[in-house]
Amino acid sequence: MIHLPKDETKLMVAVHGWSGIVLGLLLYAVVLTGMVAVFAEEIGIWSAGHIETRSAFERPIDSAVRNLARRTSEKYYEGVDLFEMGDHDLGVFFHRHETEASGDFVSRGIYYQVDKTGRVVETQNGTSEDVFGPRNDDALSRFLIDTHVQLHVPNPWGLLLTGILGLAMLVAAISGLLIHRHLFKDIFTLRRKANPVLVDRDRHSVAGTWSLPFAFVLAFTGSFFSFFSTIGVPIVAMAAFGGDIPALTEAVYGNPGKANPRPVAIGNLDRIAADSIRRAGDAPTFVAIENFGRADSKVTSYHPPKASDIEPVTLLYDGASARFDRAKPAIGPRPSAGGTIAAIMAPLHFGNFAGIVSKAIWFALGFAMCYVTLTGLRLWLVRRADAARSLEWLDRSVAVIGFGLPFALVVAAAAFLIEMPKGGAVYWTTASFLIASAVAIVGGFFARARAIDRALQLGTGLVMIALPVLRLVTGGPSWTVAMSAGQPIIAAMDSAFVLAGGFMLWRHFGAKRRQSGLRVPVLHPAE
Question: What are 105's strand-pairing partners?
Fold first, then answer.
């Protein structure tokens, strides 16, 4: 039990309410897109029709990288990045670091995409932003991640905004904890036959209380990511490196050692890949080669956390001999508490540390937080029914954003499925999202909140059910083809969309108004 004096309890209630009202809808947008982004990898596989399950690093890559090196200028041997692209193709980026006239630090070079047969299917000159930007086959998954990370607001303002929203979530979580006089009792209190407002308040309290630990984790890790590059790195660089961000990057992420530019052929990359998989228990997600073709070459492989751990695995190899050197921390040359904490931020934020199980838990907790945010806003409005007309704009805004955002996201998915075969997915994924959002906003000016709710839920349910059909019609693999290739994700995602869409239609066409899910009594002052 938590006991606060009466005046302090009133203050905490006010802080809790206004922190949710001022930034609640933006916070809802970040949490909802984050909930979906947890499954960004699976959505990418489903939407692009990828059925290959074998990692590019489990196939021979050594000869392909050597052949590419022969056709690439040595000025781009400073760094070579290896990663997966598309349906487990191999991406190879030979590059060097440059400082542009604007003062921006960039990696510039040549990118190659190599298919499963070793054939080069794409070549591109440019910076890392060009190489790692959205592509036709991953436009949807990248769109979901970018929406969550910075709400498509230009850098650095988007990151700063999501960081502030993370702090607002911390404030709401802490104040919500303090105003619970009977915390453990509230966890299990659901008065189903009480006054509808009390029923909704109980549901809000139960969902909020159970998701409190998740709210703390999500808010803290999200704020860390947002402020790390926008505020933390420049401040540390200014304080310790005279503002030299490349020097800071080298000190934090590099592998210190005596320079030896003597030409030496790179060691066997297939042997390094096989050894790293044996040690880490999983294929690498990224491999970085420093000083390719020199005696002081280093190869670093980055892996997901092991089954019994939450910290990602980073392994260092001598590039010239392909000999294993040591397991190294993701940050800094030596293990440290700070490096460990920084390394586990991403797994904790995205919930990918235990495969599909942890992702499912994170998705469910994210859904609970979306529910808490929307019901909190609606309950705040119900408590102020006397000011109904003056707050009608907020009631409509809650309806438009609360149900318009899911509608716009599924419309974007449909547009991606239609346009990917034509090569226009990057443009139309974003454009369709904006068009659907505009439709929801315009509807908010002419319809009442209840009508907006029902129309957007109906539209979302219909589009969800249509997505699996669209995927097949536009050339996606059938369940038989996917399952025979050992790829169950496509069938699972199809089923999830049909079930979710069917549930929304069932709610919409139900004879009685149901109070489950996100539906709570809404404020309709003119009725």
Answer: 99
